């Protein structure tokens, strides 16, 4: 509004200038005619400003005037020259002044416009930014509240977990008291085991010692038997019984107790078996046959009231002659039966024979035997024994077994080695 | 020529053969004669005698062959190449017990040398006849057959499998139950040889019911039998957890602990091997052993013997301690640590030392309590010297370094750590300083002691690359002390002070 106002003022000024020029044209000054026109247009065409129609019309009028002036160009040319030469003196100064005025004016106008824009922008931005930051603030507050809440929850959870984990671990995993108890128990077991093993070792040691002592004793005994001839006699004291000593040597006592060693008969040498038995452990003495010592064949008759050697050997190596009782036992049948039963048991044959069906006997009639069917009753011959006379005195209901003793006299008559009973 | 004279010729011939064979058999007992016999072509002469009409000569020829083959593997190979084995195998089934024994002896002598020779025996089909011999009535024959089978099975898993496939295991288990001690011994040894190769073979032995019978005989007074029994049990138990549990279920504890007190060294060794093989599988089995007092018994056993006999016991302690901290604590309260450190210092051989170092590392690596128990026995300097010594083997060095590291990383017992500041190499010093840096901020007494004992001074002298872990540790130690103290103990501080004295201008009045 300010702009338009000043613009009208400026146009008035412009007209006055044009009037002045018209005055100059009338005076017939010659010159370039396009320059004022441009100047005029330049003034009118300010940036962003529409050219107002009346102004244009006025300009057209001015242009018409200009055309008229051109028509009279010759006179105007001369006048122009003349006037220019007069004006030239002031032209520079005026131009500068105009430029200054214009620049000031334009600057004012543009600044005003920019200021206006700024104000508008600031208003828009202010509102927008306030909106944004309010929104942001809401968010921040929400977040802070959430964080605070979560922190508290976490802290509380940690507290609970701490307690619980500590309790659990102490109770179940690293139970200090349990561990202590366990270690104590292990120590006790260790002590007990150590004691037991010590005892065991000692026992072994004792046994070993005892065995060694026994061996030693045996050896000494054997030595004593071997040196039995050193025993002192009534006449001569032995070397262990020195007369210059108060007590005899302990060996003397040992010798007294010992039995003198008799001469051993030279053993029959086993030539082959010695080399065979001495081989490595896979063969041993027990599995090879020893040569049995047979009775010597050609022995001389001993001096004295002895029997013939052949007779003696015959007696010694004679085969077994069982008595009649042994050879023909009285319960042969029973034993044979027993034997058969045993045989069958070994052979594993079924004892239970196949029996006929249970209804087989049903229709059978009982036929009494001749003895039982007699009307005189059973006869008692051969059934009665002397034992039956007084059954009250029986110890057991079973009958006695009849045993027939054999007579040695008959079975061995003439075969006896001893001649004591023989009638000369 | 009368009949008598004709017969006399035969008799002489027979006598000469007998004499020859007997002499050869006798000469073959001495190693110095063997070469001569071999050069004289004894093999080719003995072979026909194996087919002699007189049984005695056959047997003695087989015996001589066995002795020759027993001597070295060249002769054993000669027996194989001479095609004697099929003959022996054939007659093994046919002849009397003396001959069987001699033939089994030859097979054993041949098979013991190498897997190839044993394979040759298997290829001859000897296994089936040997297994039949196991059913023989005579214990001597059984013994010889079991021995031969054991020597064949000893070499590798395939041969053992062949023996198992021949059906020897149930019969060997029967042989264990025989009254003869020698037979028992050899049958147990054969079972041990069979089961040592693979879990499957051990499982077949277990399936035959061997464990119950073996476990019964642990208390047998015969030491050699005990050795074999314990060896067989440990060979069975070593393969898997299941087998070890089967062995344990035969209630061998605490009976087997008495074997640790035995007079015989090898009984001790095998008993500790058995315990080790059981303990190494799971924490539960170890716990069972510890609860039965096994740890104490083994520790006593270690104390009572020397050298290689100790090794399985030492390893057993290591295995037990490695399983869990409670078990390691149980080893500690059974007084295991002093015994192990004794082993570490007094054993001359490196591998035993290495085992002891490893066991100590396993004991000390669990908690500060454990590490302290190891450190108070003054073991760490010994370990360090073993690690630093140029004479010790590579394995020992590695093991002792590992042990030192694992103990140091848990150790908070400063008096034991202090000497390490002075004589430890940088890679170990790092851990020592680290331990100090962890302990000192929390322990005022220790801080004081650390200064007075000169530790702080030593720490200042350590050259550490800036930014390294060691430097960090040193910094955190320095942060525990006021700056003057740190500066006072820094090297070169006195010179700086003197320089200040030099440069000081007294106020001139």
Automatic annotation (TrEMBL), chain A:
One of its GO terms (cellular component) is spindle pole. Keywords: Calmodulin-binding, Coiled coil, Cytoplasm, Repeat. It is found in: Cytoplasm. Residues 179-221 form a coiled coil. One of its GO terms (molecular function) is calmodulin binding. Its main location: cytoplasm. This is Spermatosis associated 17. It comes from Equus asinus.
TrEMBL record, chain B:
The keyword Repeat applies. GO terms for cellular component: acrosomal vesicle; axoneme; extracellular region; microtubule; sperm principal piece. SMART domains: ARM (SM00185). GO terms for biological process: epithelial cilium movement involved in extracellular fluid movement; filopodium assembly; neuron projection extension; sperm axoneme assembly. Keywords: Cell projection, Cilium, Cilium biogenesis/degradation, Cytoplasm, Cytoskeleton, Flagellum, Microtubule, Repeat. Its main location: other. It is found in: Cell projection, Cilium, Flagellum; Cytoplasm, Cytoskeleton, Cilium axoneme. GO terms for molecular function: microtubule binding. Gene3D superfamilies: Leucine-rich Repeat Variant. InterPro entries: ARM-like, ARM-type_fold, Armadillo. Interacts with SPAG16 and SPAG17. Important for structural integrity of the central apparatus in the sperm tail and for flagellar motility. This is Sperm-associated antigen 6.
């Amino acid at each position: 509004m300010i702009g338009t106002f000043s613009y009208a003022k400026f146009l008035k000024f412009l007209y006055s200038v044009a009037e002045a020029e018209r005055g100059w044209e009338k005076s017939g000054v010659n010159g370039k005619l396009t320059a004022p026109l441009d100047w005029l247009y330049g003034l009118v065409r300010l940036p962003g400003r529409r050219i107002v129609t009346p102004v244009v019309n006025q300009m057209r009028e001015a242009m018409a005037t200009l055309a008229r002036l051109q028509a009279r160009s010759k006179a105007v040319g001369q006048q122009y020259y003349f006037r220019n030469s007069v004006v030239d003196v002031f032209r520079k100064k005026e131009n500068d002044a105009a430029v200054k005025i214009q620049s000031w004016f334009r600057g004012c106008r543009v600044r005003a416009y920019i200021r206006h824009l700024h104000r508008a922008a600031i208003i828009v931005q202010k509102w927008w930014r306030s909106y944004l930051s309010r929104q942001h603030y809401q968010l921040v507050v929400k977040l802070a509240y959430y964080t605070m809440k979560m922190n508290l929850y976490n802290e509380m959870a940690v507290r609970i977990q701490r307690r619980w984990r500590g309790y659990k671990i102490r109770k179940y995993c690293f139970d200090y008291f349990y561990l202590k108890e366990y270690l104590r128990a292990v120590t006790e077991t260790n002590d007990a085991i150590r004691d037991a093993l010590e005892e065991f070792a000692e026992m072994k040691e004792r046994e070993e010692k005892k065995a060694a002592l026994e061996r030693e004793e045996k050896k000494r005994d054997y030595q004593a038997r071997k040196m039995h001839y050193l025993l002192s006699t009534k006449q001569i004291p032995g070397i262990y019984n020195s007369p210059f000593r108060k007590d005899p040597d302990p060996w003397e006592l040992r010798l007294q107790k010992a039995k003198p060693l008799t001469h051993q008969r030279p053993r029959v040498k086993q030539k082959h078996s010695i080399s065979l038995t001495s081989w490595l452990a896979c063969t041993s003495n027990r599995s090879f046959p020893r040569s049995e010592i047979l009775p010597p064949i050609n022995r001389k008759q001993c001096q004295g009231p002895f029997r013939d050697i052949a007779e003696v050997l015959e007696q010694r190596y004679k085969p077994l002659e069982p008595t009649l009782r042994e050879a023909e036992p009285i319960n042969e049948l029973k034993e044979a039966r027993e034997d058969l039963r045993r045989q069958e048991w070994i052979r594993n044959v079924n004892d239970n024979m196949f029996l006929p069906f249970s209804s087989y006997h049903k229709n059978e009639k009982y036929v009494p035997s001749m003895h039982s069917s007699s009307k005189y009753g059973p006869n008692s011959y051969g059934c009665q024994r002397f034992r039956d006379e007084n059954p009250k005195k029986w110890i057991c209901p079973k009958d006695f077994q009849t045993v027939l003793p054999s007579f040695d006299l008959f079975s061995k008559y003439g075969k006896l080695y001893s001649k004591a009973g023989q009638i000369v | 020529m009368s009949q008598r004279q004709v017969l006399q010729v035969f008799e002489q011939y027979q006598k000469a053969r007998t004499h020859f064979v007997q002499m050869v058999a006798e000469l073959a007992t001495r190693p110095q004669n063997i070469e001569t016999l071999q050069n004289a072509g004894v093999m080719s002469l003995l072979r026909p005698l194996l087919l002699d009409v007189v049984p005695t000569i056959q047997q003695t020829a087989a015996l001589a062959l066995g002795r020759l083959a027993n001597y070295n593997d060249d002769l054993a190979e000669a027996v194989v190449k001479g095609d004697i084995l099929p003959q022996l195998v054939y007659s093994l089934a046919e002849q009397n017990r003396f001959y069987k024994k001699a033939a089994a002896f030859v097979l054993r002598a041949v098979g013991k040398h190498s897997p190839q020779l044993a394979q040759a025996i298997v290829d001859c089909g000897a296994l089936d006849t040997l297994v039949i011999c196991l059913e023989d009535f005579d214990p001597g024959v059984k013994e010889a057959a079991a021995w031969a089978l054991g020597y064949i099975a000893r070499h590798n898993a395939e041969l053992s499998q062949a023996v198992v496939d021949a059906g020897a295991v149930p019969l060997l288990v029967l042989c264990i139950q025989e009254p003869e001690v020698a037979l028992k011994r050899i049958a147990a040894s054969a079972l041990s040889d069979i089961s040592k190769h693979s879990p499957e073979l051990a499982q077949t032995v277990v399936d035959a019911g061997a464990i119950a019978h073996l476990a019964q005989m642990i208390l047998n007074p015969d030491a050699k039998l005990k050795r074999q029994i314990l060896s067989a049990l440990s060979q069975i138990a070593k393969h898997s957890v299941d087998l070890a549990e089967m062995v344990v279920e035969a209630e061998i504890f605490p009976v087997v602990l008495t074997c640790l007190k035995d007079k015989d060294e090898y009984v001790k060794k095998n008993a500790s091997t058995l315990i080790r093989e059981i303990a190494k599988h799971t924490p539960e089995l170890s716990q069972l052993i510890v609860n039965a007092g096994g740890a104490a018994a083994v520790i006593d056993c270690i104390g009572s013997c020397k050298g290689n006999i100790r090794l399985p016991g030492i390893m057993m302690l290591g295995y037990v301690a490695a399983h869990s901290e409670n078990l390691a604590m149980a080893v500690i309260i059974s007084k295991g640590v002093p015994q192990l450190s004794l082993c570490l210092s007094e054993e001359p051989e490196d591998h035993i030392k290495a085992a002891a170092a490893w066991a100590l590392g396993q004991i000390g690596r669990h908690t500060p309590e454990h590490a302290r128990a190891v450190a108070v026995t003054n073991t760490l300097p010994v370990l360090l010297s073993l690690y630093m010594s140029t004479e010790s083997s590579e394995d020992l060095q590695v093991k002792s370094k590992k042990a030192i590291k694992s103990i140091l990383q848990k150790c908070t017992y400063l008096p034991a750590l202090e000497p390490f500041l002075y004589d430890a190499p940088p890679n170990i010093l790092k851990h020592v300083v680290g331990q100090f840096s962890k302990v000192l901020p929390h322990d005022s007494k220790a801080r004081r002691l650390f200064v007075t004992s000169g530790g702080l001074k030593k720490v200042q002298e350590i050259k550490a690359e800036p930014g390294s872990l060691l430097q960090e540790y040193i910094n955190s130690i320095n942060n525990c002390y006021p700056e003057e103290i740190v500066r006072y103990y820094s090297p070169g501080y006195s010179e700086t002070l003197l320089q200040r004295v030099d440069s000081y201008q007294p106020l001139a009045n």
